[in-house]
Amino acid sequence: MRAYDLILKKRMGGELTEQEIQFLISGYVSGAVADYQMAAWAMAVWFRGMSAREVAWLTQAMVASGDTVDLSAIDGIKVDKHSTGGVGDTTTLVLAPLVAAAGVPFAKMSGRGLGHTGGTLDKLESFPGFQVELEPKQFIDNVNRYKLAVVGQSARLAPADGKLYGLRDVTATVDSLPLIASSVMSKKLAAGADALVLDVKVGNGAFMQSLDDAFALAGMMVEIGEKLGRRTIALITAMDRPLGQAVGNALEVKEAIAVLSGAGPEDLKELCLELGSRMLVAAGAGTEAAEARFWLQELLASGAALAKFRELISVQGGDAGLIDNPQNLPRAPLKREVRARQKGWVSELDTRGIGAAALGLGAGRVRKDEPIDLAVGIEVLAKPGQQVELGQVLAVLHGRDERTLAEAQTQVQDCYTIGPERITPLPLICGEVSIDGEKRF
Ligand code: URA
Ligand code: CA
């Protein structure tokens, strides 16, 4: 077998066999297939696409390139959740204790933020002392005992994906549905959960800009998961505006605490209930999503979910007292407001721009090893579809110094388009995809 022939076959629109895909991926990891050959193949895939079988084989080959996590020592059906990435997406911080409080084991492997999206690990480090590195045995023991543990994702999971993603990033081949679907699913499958609930974001803050693309990506990921023996459900959710109000690490932790305390932004709470109820259904803990949702609401109202969060933080060495005194979480020294320059309706919000402005304030990192400032960020108060008065506060910036604040102020101001007509933003939950098919709401 030669890489040349496989590149040519794909370039001509052919379907590769399982053996051919394994040859490419294992060769790429070992160095027998060169970067330039893999890049040419990825570009051929970008133009020609892949069959459902090819995507499943590619996913499997990437899973096989590294370690897989064995969660069989954890009792019950383990459900994982994945978001394709958005701005101010605080759901994991709420969902993890919420679902665990319902008795569903949540063995969460999380990443750090890169670019304009934040990482759960960074957010949790807002609690001084919180340990994101647990020995595998400790991780499993904690999940069995408390139903919940969060650890950093090992680079040994699906290393072929790590290498290929880096290559795609510099060869204009990231935005290919089969390559994204296999990339996400290889990491999730290697992480060992029995079932998966996917949150596929759509809109100007997401990878997928159109509903059709988002449904196609969700369909592909559901098909891969089900083909490889994992119950997989996807919700398509709005990212034409940030989720909740807070964008930035400690600000998002405060927002999560608010939701767990029965307050907080309605959209964040709603999304957590919808994703959480699917997780309960997938875990076999509730018969129907509507019933599961009712139960989760009770766990929020009774304080059980908040108590579970307190437990998670203290079991992993963090200062759980901050949950009752969130004003003592990392706090930026300076604040600045962004005000409406005219009255009207917010007709568009450049969500990616909000993420970029938060990055400029220091809330994210451009390179993998950079430190981040947990305290800084943006509170997004006005969203698309909302009516605003002249001079109304649209957003509040939390910053470290005058220079970055001034820059972010201009950036955030420019993210808002205010017009004379009322627009209807995307519904928070745009649809659902499962093995039974696609529903659009
Ligand atoms: N996230 C991933 O993990 N992989 C992709 O290809 C795109 C987004
Ligand atoms: Ca948020």
Outline the structure in words.
With 441 residues, the chain is of the alpha+beta class. Helix content is 45%, strand content 16%. It contains 17 helices and 14 strands. It has helices at 3-11, 18-30, 35-48, 52-63, 91-101, 120-124, 136-146, 159-169, 177-190, 211-227, 249-260, 266-282, 289-301, 304-315, 321-324, 351-361, 402-415, and strands at residues 79-83, 106-110, 148-152, 195-202, 231-238, 246-247, 334-339, 344-349, 377-380, 387-388, 393-399, 416-419, 429-434, 437-440. The protein has a 5-stranded mixed β-sheet with strand order 1-4-5-13-14, with helices on both faces. Strands 6-9-11-7 form a 4-stranded antiparallel β-sheet, sandwiched between helices. Strands 10-8-12 form a 3-stranded antiparallel β-sheet. Helix 4 crosses helix 10 (211-227), helix 5 packs across helix 12 and helix 12 (266-282) packs across helix 13. The model has no long low-confidence stretch (mean pLDDT 95). The chain binds uracil and calcium ion (CA). Uracil binds at residues 165, 174, 179-180, 183-184.
